[in-house]
Amino acid sequence: MPVANQHPLGSFSWLELATSEPTAAAGFYAGLMGWEFQDPEPGGSVETMLATMPGGNIVCGMGSTLQTDGVPSWTLFVNVQDVAATAAQAVALGGTVAVEAMDHLGARLAVVRDPHGASVGLWQAGDFGGLKVNNEPGAMMWAEYCSRTPDASLEFYRGLFGWEGDADQHNKKYTLLRNPRIETDVVEARYIGGMVAMDESWDGDVPHHWIPYFEVDSLDASLSKFKELGGKQVTPEMKIPDGKFVVANDPQGAVFILCMMGS
Fold first, then answer.
1. Which of 72, 83, 121, 196 could form a disulfide with 254 if both were Cys (CB 3.0 to 4.6 A apart)?
2. What would the pLDDT profile of 14-29 be if each residue is shown by its tens digit?
3. Which residue, 261, 176, 183, 215, is CA-closest to 6?
């Protein structure tokens, strides 16, 4: 996958783990994903480590800067033209602001909650454009929204980011989220994530939420390492048309998905 220097508006451009134990979390993900970490600058105002793949391409951030509720969690950020204007639009659409606009890592960001309580980040690129690589082993390859009210959820995100929803021909409970701002004639290349409808098979206390997919070369090998490192497997292995995945918790409790593409 080519290195990304710029992300289209309306596409995911940053990913950050908020945790009260960043050093322990960094050790876990280094062992699992092979990431290396750049420590925050001494005396700096930003307490976020940058995670890189071997070779130096940035895949995410990790630290305590964005913590809002004291619960370790991954926040996915969408590239926007103007953070303040988009946050105001989120409020107008029934959402709330969880983290006010702030300068961060050479960009400007905020975190909003949609009307159902799920957090999503807003990213206005500055000197730092965000993720350098995705869609390959060792990096984020997909973003998923879990909703009990998919029609209402799509209406909110259409109004906020301009996304459209396309039915997934393989799964009637799944909607593919399409970013019309991506300039390509290949429809599949405009899909930036998906939305799954939470039905009666889901525990009733599971809230609406966003979750990142991390791609690995071998799911079996990664799960073995994952368990050695203290991770908790949440679901059994599940198949998708082009691969398989599991939902997982890191040792601090942050939720993510490990996914292997291919057979």
1. 72
2. 999 998 888 899 999 9
3. 183
